[in-house]
Amino acid sequence: xxxxxxxxxxxxxxxxxxxxxxxxxxxxxxxxxxxxxxxxxxxxxxxxxxxxxxxxxxxxxxxxxxxxxxxxxxxxxxxxxxxxxxxxxxxxxxxxxxxxxxxxxxxxxxxxxxxxxxxxxxxxxxxxxxxxxxxxxxxxxxxxxxxxxxxxxxxxxxxxxxxxxxxxxxxxxxxxxxxxxxxxxxxxxxxxxxxxxxxxxxxxxxxxxxxxxxxxxxxxxxxxxxxxxxxxxxxxxxxxxxxxxxxxxxxxxxxxxxxxxxxxxxxxxxxxxxxxxxxxxxxxxxxxxxxxxxxxxxxxxxxxxxxxxxxxxxxxxxxxxxxxxxxxxxxxxxxxxxxxxxxxxxxxxxxxxxxxxxxxxxxxxxxxxxxxxxxxxxxxxxxxxxxxxxxxxxxxxxxxxxxxxxxxxxxxxxxxxxxxxxxxxxxxxxxxxxxxxxxxxxxxxxxxxxxx
Length: 452
Description:
Helix content is 30%, strand content 19%. It has 452 residues and is of the alpha/beta class. A hairpin with a 4-residue loop joins strand 3 (73-76) and strand 4 (81-84).
């Protein structure tokens, strides 16, 4: 069942609440202060805030048969290896409020430090990704030894964008940061495999967030907090949702039960694809990229590869990377599991495709969302509803901001990091990240923590 799920990038057939009590159908005649569509990060965080902070009731509906959204993980029974179903998820953040939030359940679902390192096959060599001094020296036969030399080398190879201070697309942006050679060897083919589009067809912001190290640091992230849930994401989600005010229902399609919920939900929080919600508008579908996973269970008491994630940027193979979950926390097993990831336009929506056509279409959906909020108390929150890729920390931050925006920033001493004098401002959800009600300590990460 799980292998079939991996190959088709679909949810599992069995139900898994991570030990949390859940239902398989909507309770009859019951009413809730808030009805939430989606049991991923956005939906779970908002349900928990309503329950813990305001003592309000929530119904959390999930079309998949498990909690946790794309973060969902499980122990593969034959090997005993803890692994994700929808691609590796590495948590990292510089936001103090978000770190306080995820560690609220540290006694039951503890997080532990984990510094993630990634390598990639580049011209037949296994080299660090993101690009650092070792990558440049190994790939381009340079002899850089200091950050100052690396900065000068980058300055010499960078290609300015055609318009001053404004890059027209992802290719221009990448070349303006790493030069022509690194762009072609590291980014060009990988981007094509990932998005099925040439870099010049994609927004400049896509490659603007690619990190480039001017030192020998091999870590994928540089955030202050880099952690993994030692008992798994599913266990952590179960603790977040474990509250007397929260009802969780799995395997339920919201659009099939929406009519039966009329008059029973004080507010509705929608975290799914915004174009699916407004399907009857006939505006058309937004573009997404998905992932197909091909898993293999191997008899091997050691490891298949040197690192948990090995990227394949070149055209030699059609998959983008191989993940070996056994590396995380050095799990012991007589087996190992490798998962190849193939980018596709079919399957569950993971990545919004960033180009002008999709942005223009999303603006039309945003207008509908604003109207729905005013007239029906429906709020659109999260990655799919915002048609914007969020890292995990940004998704949590976005959900906390939205809760504050809707409810006027109630006191939350368990996570607050207010700065005296910070103003409060209510904003429309409408698929956009709300203006923070308070100033925050730290920064959200800009480097992808999951499937690219």
